[in-house]
Amino acid sequence: MLALLRLLADGRFHSGEALGRALGVSRSAVWKQLQQLEAEYQIPVYKVRGKGYQLASPLHLLDEAVLQGALGEQGVAVEVHTILDSTNAEVLRQVAAHRAMPLLVLAEAQSAGRGRRGRQWVSPFGQNLYFSMGLRIEGGMRRLEALSLVAGLAVLKLVREYGIDAGLKWPNDVLCDGKKVAGILLELVGDPADVCHVVLGIGINVNMCAAEAIDQAWTSLQLASAKSIDRNQLVQALCRHLLGYLKLHSDYGFAGLQAEWESNHLWQGRSVQLASGGLQVSGVALGVDAQGGLRLEVNGVEQVFSGGELSLRLSHDS
């Protein structure tokens, strides 16, 4: 089916006869594969008598050979999968199998994509970026401080390269015009005080223009820029920025990036509400500390909050 999908990816009409000839199969076999595409990958295909078959919109499919050629020089192994439960879960399986790191796992779709606090990450086929990089970390807690915030800086730089005005929301979202365009999920296995492995999961809405299952305001790079995005170029640019920021973090710690992060925090100085389970704290966002914790002014006193289960919202009066 992928061979057929690559033929259709340009978004133009292709006759059943031409597709069959290119694939070395009958027109009937082409028809069956088209039905499978729609059923298994939820990819709509237009069928017009006298014209043939056309995807509802063009696809920029990921090319493992191109990406490995570009990123192998930087020491990153690349895997591209048609569909996974979760790219983060696959990296964790590879860590358990003692695979060498860094390893980048990408997928065209996810059947069980995950965001923070166990939320579903909507993952339609071939439209967005589902990106997980596994890293081996030595040197203790300092090397782990605020890694998700560091990744956010890399994603923000990438998004702005497409002419999109965006900013950061603590702890790990990238917003455009108040709508989420990207999110980060960090997972860790091993001993944080000694040697451990970290998975940096990054989800970016790239060419998605419609989605019914997302329960918050969202946008995509295509919607924000009015341009269809080549995801292979996007992966290469994201890796370049991410590795650059990871090097700065390794050399200087998050303290060396703290000011840059704060200068791009959209809710800096605004009234916010922080929620954790049933607990809610109201205050003014002052920024982050050198470990990536959120600094809030609560009743005139500065407090610092950190943890994976925290959720930050603007107050109604902000």
Structure description:
The protein has helices spanning 2-8, 16-23, 27-41, 64-71, 87-96, 147-160, 221-225, 231-252, 258-263; strands at 45-48, 52-55, 77-84, 103-110, 129-138, 167-169, 173-176, 179-190, 195-204, 271-276, 279-288, 294-298, 301-305, 311-314. Strand 7 (173-176) and strand 8 (179-190) form a beta hairpin. The chain has nine helices and 14 strands. It has three domains: 2-55, Arc Repressor Mutant, subunit A; 64-262, BirA Bifunctional Protein, domain 2 (2-Layer Sandwich); 267-314, SH3 type barrels (Roll). It has a seven-stranded mixed beta sheet with strand order 3-4-5-9-8-7-6, sandwiched between helices. Strands 13-12-11-10-14 form a five-stranded antiparallel beta sheet. The chain has 318 residues and is of the alpha+beta class.
Give a concise summary.
With 318 residues, this protein is an alpha+beta fold. It has helices at 2-8, 16-23, 27-41, 64-71, 87-96, 147-160, 221-225, 231-252, 258-263, and strands at 45-48, 52-55, 77-84, 103-110, 129-138, 167-169, 173-176, 179-190, 195-204, 271-276, 279-288, 294-298, 301-305, 311-314.
